Amino acid sequence: MLLFFVRRLMASIPVLFVISLCAFFLIHSAHGDPAIAMYGNQLERMRPEDQMRIRSNLGLNEPLPVQYGKWLSQAVQGELGRSYLDGRQVSEIIAARLPNTLILTTLASILMIILSVIIGMIAAVKQYTWFDYLSTCFAFIFYSIPSFWLALLAILIFSVYLGWLPSTGISSIGREADLVDRLVHLIMPTIVLAVSHIGGYIRFVRSSILEVLSQDYILTAHAKGLWPAYIYYAHALRNALIPFITYAGMSFSSLIGGGYLVETVFSYPGIGQLTVHAAATRDYPLLMGTILLTGIFVVLGNLAADVCCAWADPRIQVEGVERRIGTYG
pTM of the entire structure? Predict the structure, then answer.
């Protein structure tokens, strides 16, 4: 297992390099000037030599390959540069926001996985019943609704009309240390983020379990007179979860992307809101840092899926060769 993990981890390094390379050149090819974003109309009133000095201090006068080389050499050492706007270390800014995003994403992932497994399995066991049709209908509805629209709808209903839940922020003013207040602020973002991505997971769990239920060993277990609940949970569920784990790891990027929109709508102080703010203000070092962190999350999600699949089915670990479990869809 350790050798399997090390090989997967080493294979992730080129992926992160490609992500950073593409992100850097795409960001710097976009319209806009960070110097103008920092100084506004005052930059045009400055003397040309002052404008040149400002851009030189920001490193904007050098060719893009040189800028990327310097950034990459510093990033490998854990130095992501300083923000153009406030001069603070990018790593310091990200570290202050990262726990909030991890809490939100973890809670949403747990809620989404639990609900999708339960609903998908019941829909598969009770195929072509009212529950199956109803779950399919809701799955397609939630799959089609954008996360930002669902967030706005939740704010309108539960904050504006009913007044049950707070609409923005991570805590109330003066209650920053109140754990209950923080949990109340997490309710809507967590549910919205989980529900906006649950549709595809429900359909995937259903199709995976139906595939397993048609296998001969399941029919043999029924013929032996085993308790149906034992067959479904002890035999069918574990084998059906192997492709589901792979699918969850590969689609982790969509959950991260949806979290950006949800955090922005709810003014939740996480990495998503920070990325949107950095893009709007053309804060290139901060934007590159958040994109690189997102890439690391995606790579770690796929790595965790590989390890979980190898643990659930030891046949995946073949001496000298790893066989990737294909997904159904």
Answer: 0.75
